[in-house]
Amino acid sequence: MAHKNQFQLLGSRRFLPFFCTQSLGAFNDNVFKNALIVMIAFRLATAEANFLINLAAGLFILPFFLFSATAGQVADKIDKSTLIRRIKLAEIGIVLFGIGALYSGNNYLCLLVLFLLGVQSAFFGPVKYAILPQHLRKAELVGGNALVEMGTFVSILTGTIVGGLLAGFTGEGEPGLLWISAVILVTAITGYLVSRAIPQAVPPAPDLQINYNPVTQTNRILKEAAKTPAVFYAIIGISWFWLLGAAYLTQIPSLTRNVLGGGESLVTLLLCCFTIGVAIGSLLCGRLSGGRVELGLVPIGAAGLTVVGVLLASATGNYQPPVEPTVAAFWANEGAPAILINLTLIGIFGGFFIVPLYSMMQERSDATIRARIIAVNNVMNALFMVVAAILGIVFLNVLGATIPQFFLVIALMNAAVAIFVFTRVPEFAMRLLIWLLSHTMYRVNHEGLERIPAEGAAIIACNHVSYVDALLLAGAIRRPIRFIMYKPIYEIPVLHFIFKTSRAIPICSKQQDPEGYARAFAEIEQGLKDGDLLCIFPEGQLTKDGELQPFKVGIEKILQRTPVPVIPMALRGLWGSFFSHKDGSAFSTLPRRFWSRVCVVAGSPLAAAEVKAEALQETVADLRGEAR
């Protein structure tokens, strides 16, 4: 299965050269940025150093506001592999200029280099995520994003550590500047050479007329994104994560010095815990997603970020610092494990939160404007990071809150933002319920699902055993499914919310509700004309004895109006489970088993002209076999 082989992407030319190119770029940016910040901090008086350090942070973010909109348009207009090579060539030029600036000792020239590196990153950002859907299959998209997130955060951490260490050897007579120059130049040249192996990625909009006004272009693409609420709120969710991450990471040096009583080495340890956590969470997300964009992990990530954020606030608030400001003294403190574990868990849950959102944004964005959507996402990320800095100033400097209190506030804010996003896009809650069912009460295996067409109109015809049949099918099949279901089941509390979210079509007999019957058939016809994948349970009701009930001729009427392929399917192993009618009505008696091993089986597609209710029933019965 795809999710078990995500590391195999590292052996593919479709992915490895790009992965190495972006990782080397992230490493190089952070070597130069952190080396510069450390040198400024130790060369200058405190007041001037603080000013230049904050100016450096602003100059690196500023290009994302100024150039992301243009960068997104360029990435949609030009072959992305060619664009990446041009960006990496520009990086070599910027690095050569940066080496001269470092040796000149002019801090403002160095800040100009940092600004140029920000410009380069702003142009690389849209390409970074827009190229993945062109080179990876859908089943590989989550795994690819997980590896990219892991590689990015590890490169950021490694670059930060290397830059800081080398900056410590830049005093008079020290070889630090030579080493910094060698590292950033060799890395830039290596990045360019590796980028030459990236396969071609044909531009989706080669005739695009570029709008160089960042304000009007960003506003226009935001409006385009808002037409697909899932994409728009994915951007909001991703940007919120960057705010949350910036709020934590920005405070780590002050937390270390003022709350934990530690030094620079402890700062590095805490950064390592967070970054390693994000890498682990990203890879776990790829494993748990089962080769699909699993939105059910996003609420788990959001809940984890809130709970662990509160625990971190408590752990740091109750910490009693040791006398010695060493890592060893911190390690020996009884409060240290809770802080390290919670920081790591924040990173892990952050990976659960961010990877599916990036994958959904890529998958559901219109291919012709995908890079521009990602560019706008980068603008919003930068904006939210600025907001994180403002929140830190307001709470810590204006309101006089402590850092643990600030951590508590942003953890609670995370809960509020998550609830807002999940109510706006109920699909997250639906996918969570499906994921929980398929990973707790049910162990689901699949057979023949590759026979389901990846796109285009079709109808799935399946036996009906339990109240969660639709959820199990939706969890097994990668394409979104619209279910045609008996109206009383559609209206069951809680499940109604799920079915409505997935645009299920309620139906009952013509005698019970003639208008509703006609309305359902009209909606079915329109859905098939729109290319949707529909699922019908031809028995019309749940089985009461575990055997197939006679298939009704409704499916023949549907196919007469809109001929499309029919995929016969069967659910095995559900009879006797908690949500079936074995031994009476479902829920009225204790089930014979709480855990069920279920198999979802798909047969070969049937042409519409071949489908008759009685023959279709026999086909489904053969697929089901003896296992009810």
UniProtKB/TrEMBL annotation:
Coiled coil: none annotated. The chain crosses the membrane at residues 51-75, 111-131, 152-170, 176-194, 230-250, 265-285, 297-316, 336-358, 379-400, 406-425. It is found in: Cell membrane. Keywords: Cell membrane, Membrane, Transmembrane, Transmembrane helix, Transport. It is a multi-pass membrane protein. Residues 14-429 form the Major facilitator superfamily (MFS) profile domain. Its main location: membrane. PANTHER family: MACROLIDE-EFFLUX PROTEIN, MAJOR FACILITATOR SUPERFAMILY (MFS) PROFILE DOMAIN-CONTAINING PROTEIN. This is MFS transporter.
